[in-house]
Amino acid sequence: MSNKDNIFSAPIDKIGDFTFDERVAEVFPDMIQRSVPGYSNIISAIGMLAERFAKPNTNIYDLGCSLGAATLSMRRHIEQEGCKIFAIDNSSAMVERCKLHINAYRSDTPVEVIEADIRDIEIQDASVVVLNFTLQFLSPDDRFALLSKIYAGLRPGGILILSEKYVFENSTAHELLIDLHHDFKRANGYSELEISQKRNAIENVMRPDSIADHKQRFAQIGFSSYEVWFQCFNFGSMFAIK
């Protein structure tokens, strides 16, 4: 049972940039379930996609693994022999809790949890790579390089699963989807103060792209197939197949 997210429930004089620190790690399951529409569906489907695309004796990468939800979903579904999952995050608070979650469940598929910057990780002999709400926190200048490295490390037919918050070029649609997301958070018990303060804290560290931006990058890098497979309001997930 996770703690309730009340990080932004009281007025904050000076709101700093959002960080994945100890406080966030303690309440992260509650925070993400109440903040990201469709999150549970995405986690479940990541496992199903991993089951379909994982090949024997290949590596699986969960880049920006946080507490390991996507890793655990993949490990539950993967039946191929010789696979190993690498779960990587640069937050020590997330990594320590992720290790506890991973160790609580036995499986034939080994998992190595690594504290590191995902931009420094070598991607080798991969059949599945997951970026689950991670790319949007990287500098826009670093995104193409990381995706290119992933592409180079994927086996032919391998899959990248990329979940993100989206921006939309049509201003009316963009504002409507933002409003619907805020309605979703209100329905999950967040106050107007919490919604406002969280938005102020995260706006400088999370810079989403449009779906068109993602597709353009996939095409430029060389992925043979790519599409949005899930969307709820301004959140969604895409696949890109080498």
From TrEMBL:
GO biological process, one term: tRNA wobble uridine modification
Catalyzed reactions per annotation: prephenate + S-adenosyl-L-methionine = carboxy-S-adenosyl-L-methionine + 3-phenylpyruvate + H2O
Classification via Pfam families: Methyltransf_25
Phylogenetic lineage: Bacteria, Pseudomonadati, Pseudomonadota, Gammaproteobacteria, Vibrionales
Keyword S-adenosyl-L-methionine annotated: yes
Residue numbers binding S-adenosyl-L-methionine: Y39, G64, C65, S66, D89, N90, D117, I118, N132, R199
Source species, domain of life: Bacteria
Keyword vocabulary terms for this entry: Methyltransferase, S-adenosyl-L-methionine, Transferase
Role, per record: Catalyzes the conversion of S-adenosyl-L-methionine (SAM) to carboxy-S-adenosyl-L-methionine (Cx-SAM).
Keyword Chaperone among UniProt keywords: no
Molecular functions (GO terms): carboxyl- or carbamoyltransferase activity; methyltransferase activity; S-adenosyl-L-methionine binding
Xref: InterPro entries: CmoA, Methyltransf_25, SAM-dependent_MTases_sf
Family indicated by similarity: Belongs to the class I-like SAM-binding methyltransferase superfamily. Cx-SAM synthase family.
Protein name: Carboxy-S-adenosyl-L-methionine synthase
Subunit and partners: Homodimer.
Residue ranges annotated for the Methyltransferase domain, each copy included: 60-158
E.C. number(s) listed in UniProt: 2.1.3.-
